[in-house]
Amino acid sequence: MTYGTHVYTLNGQINLNETNFQTPTAYVTFTNVPSGYTEFEAVYSNFLGKSLHGTAAMIPMAFEIYARDAALGERCLNLLCNSTSTVSGIVRQLKNKFNYSPYSPENDLYVQRFLPAATLKGAAFNKGYNPTEPYTVEMVRSANAPQETTITGYGTNYYLYILAPGGWDSFQRGVEVWQAMGSDMYKVFNCPSTYTQCKNIIGTWNGLK
Question: How far is Cα 185 from Cα 188, in angstroms, rounded to an integer?
Fold first, then answer.
């Protein structure tokens, strides 16, 4: 999909029979972070939100938008996620990750403005978390098989990994993606490992386009 000069590409698929959880079977590339809610909504509704891995790949996009503009980012997260409780849990953490408090020590290492980049291919802690371009989110099915929710008949919760070897000791970042019964769209159900503390940066982060 092309939006203005921004290009989004969907490749492969989440293989639900996969037993190798270290080699990506699906990935999404994008040349730029969406410019705002209008672009984010268009990309989600018309393209990436129609697949498991497309939906998961929008997590770092939403995080980066939130880091630039909290109100705008929260709107994007409300579109991407399945519930307001999921969004509130994410926002509660991102507020602390992106902003120094009046009580923060000098050079507070808990604040990690580069966190949205950490799940992108090539973004290693010892290289300033600067990803390769176009930006790429690589994914594979997780070791957990898809499971019906406890409320029978409402939909299916799928488990997948975003592969991010450069930011955490455990490079498999677990994500849960929800599809309501009868819907052709997917929503993020849970993704705490994508915003948990990553390794301290070495070098200079150049930001995302």
Answer: 10
